[in-house]
Amino acid sequence: MVHARILIVEDEPQLRGLLRLYLERAGYAVTDAGDGTAALAAFAADGADLVVLDLMLPGMQGEAVLEALREAADVPILITSAKRSDAERIAGLRLGADDYLAKPFNPHELTARVAAILRRSRPAAAEGTEAMISLAAGRLVLDPSSRRYTLSGGEGGRLTPGESALLVALARRPGAVLAREQLLEAVARRPGEVYERVVDVHVANLRRKLGDDATDPWLIETIPSTGYRLVADRDPS
Q1: 87: pLDDT confidence band, cut at 50, 70 and 90?
Q2: What are the residues whose beta carbons fall under 8 Å from the beta carbon of 85, sequence distance 6 or more?
Q3: Which of 33, 82, 174, 182 is most buried as measured by Cβ atoms within 10 A of its Cβ?
Q4: What is the pLDDT of residues 198-209, one digit of tens each?
């Protein structure tokens, strides 16, 4: 049974075909594109539940494709790239990607990452998460099933799967300090190397979206050398 539609954006025909083969064997419906323009056209025509995106594309670069996809929808995005440095990975995540897989990689790992991202994108069904979560004395309301949030002033939006999973993990233990390793488990990352910094990127993105201030937080407090805690005793007034 097909359980999700995947769009592969990769300019190397052999690798594109290999990824398509593995994902189709895993039960996914797959569309592919060899450049950014074709990718955006394919997404506009058929949509996708997840995009596997190479950054080093001919013509329109992957970063520009990612930004265009983010403007059009909140579809989960898995970056694949030969850019391997910590700074390059973090830059991709800050653009709004949900995960980053450096080339070369094993296609089995890619299918595992795809499955993990899709699980995070449907947290209510996967984990029995409560329908709505009210935080900071009602200043923020989050619907984990859709990842949509609303602030007390009326503005709102949608979180990425990783951002939502991290915020739900903090919300389950308000006031408790959670180490980065614990939060990595919540967003289905593997500890080590650059991955511990993924938590910091998600927190930074949450603060930007929600208007939280790292120096005077109303939502997420940084605990130096340890991790983060959800502020449980602050009234928004």
Answers
A1: confident
A2: none
A3: 33
A4: 788 888 889 988
Residue length, the chain?
Answer: 237
pLDDT higher than 50, residue 125 = no
Q: Which CATH fold would you assign to the domain 125-230?
A: Arc Repressor Mutant, subunit A (1.10.10)
| Predicted local distance difference test score (pLDDT) of residue 195 | 56
Contact present, 169 and 181 (Cβ < 8 Å): no
CB-based burial of residue 68 (10 Å sphere; 0-12 exposed, 13-18 middle, 19+ buried)? middle
Domain covering 5-121, topology: Rossmann fold (3.40.50)
DSSP symbols for 14-54: HHHHHHHHHHHHTT-EEEEESSHHHHHHHHHHH--SEEEEE
- Cα–Cα dist 11/36, whole Å: 9
Placement of tokens 């449907």 in the chain: 122
Residue 118: name the closest of 89, 149, 159, 77 by CA. 77
194 pLDDT more than 70: no
Find, among 92, 136, 143, the residue nearest to 232 by Cα. 136
